[in-house]
Specification:
By secondary structure, the chain is an all-alpha fold. The protein has a domain at about 5-15 and about 95-280: Hypothetical protein af1432 (Orthogonal Bundle). Helices cover about 65% and strands about 0% of the residues. It has helices at about 5-10, 20-30, 35-45, 45-55, 70-75, 80-95, 110-125, 130-140, 145-155, 155-165, 170-180, 185-195, 200-205, 220-235, 250-255, 260-280. Helix 8 (about 130-140) crosses helix 13 and helix 9 crosses helix 12.
Length: about 280
Amino acid sequence: MSFKKEILENIKALPTMSTTTSKIVTLLGSKDIDMNKIIQLIQFDPAITTNVLKLVNSSYFGLQKQVTSIKQAVVLLGLNQVHRIVIAVSFSPLMNNKIDGYDMPSGALWEHSVATAVASETIAKMIKFPDNDMVFTAALLHDVGKIALSTFVDEYYNRIEEDVQNSNESFEVVEKKILGIDHAEAGAVILKNWGIPQNLFMPVLWHHDPDACTIDDAQKLVDIVHLADSLCMAGGMGVGRDGLQYRPSENVVKRLKFKAIMLESIMSQTMTGIENLKEIFEI
C-alpha cells in the first residue's frame, strides 16, 4: 500500500515560507540580482529585519559599530552574508524541531543541513562553480522532506529497516518502496509548493540519486549537494537512523574530478565552517 497521497496532503498542511523569503530566494536564484530590490524586501518585513540586525550585531561578525539598517548590513557584510542570514532566520524554526521518524533530536536536522551547505560551498569553490548562493540554499534545504515523512517513517521503521537489511538496498530506496515516496521527492514537492525556483529544488529531488538527474543544466549542482550530503553523513554531522546507509556516488566523484585528499580537505573546512557559524545559525 502506498501512502504517497496521504503524505502529499500532509505537505500541503506544512507552514508556508514567508512571501518575503520566497521573493528573496527567487531573486537570488536569478542571473541578474537586484540588490536594491532585495534590501527593500527585507526592510518591509519587520520580523526578518529584526532578526537580521540582531545577528549582524552579534559577536560572530565583530563589527566595530552598531548596524542600524539593512542597507548598512549589506554594505558592511555583502549581499552573500545577508542572504545566508535571511535563509537561516526563515528556516531554522521549521528545521530545528525533533524529527522522530529519523531518530533526530531537536537541532540535528538543522545541524546536518548547515554542515551540508558549508560543505557544498567548499566544493563549489574548489571546482569554481559560480553560483555560491544557489549552492548554499539548495544544500541547506536538501532534507526538508524529512519533516513531511517523519511520522510515516516512525510508524513503519521496523519494516523499512528489515527490508534494508534483507535487500541490501539503501534506506531511501526502501523508504520509497514502502511509502510510495522518499524524503528527496517530498522535499522537492515542498519547495515547489513554496514557489522555490526549479534550479533550487532539482538538487533536493536528486540528492540521493544524482545519476537520475534529467536536466543537464542542473547536474553539477545536484552532484555538489549529493557529495556534500554524503560526506557530512559519513562524518556523523546531524545523522539520524538512515545515516550509515549513504555513500557518495562514484560517478559524481569522477564527474567532479575529486580525489581522496580533496575530500579530506572538504571535511576539515566544513568542521571549521560550522564552528564559525554556530552563533549565527544557532547550532
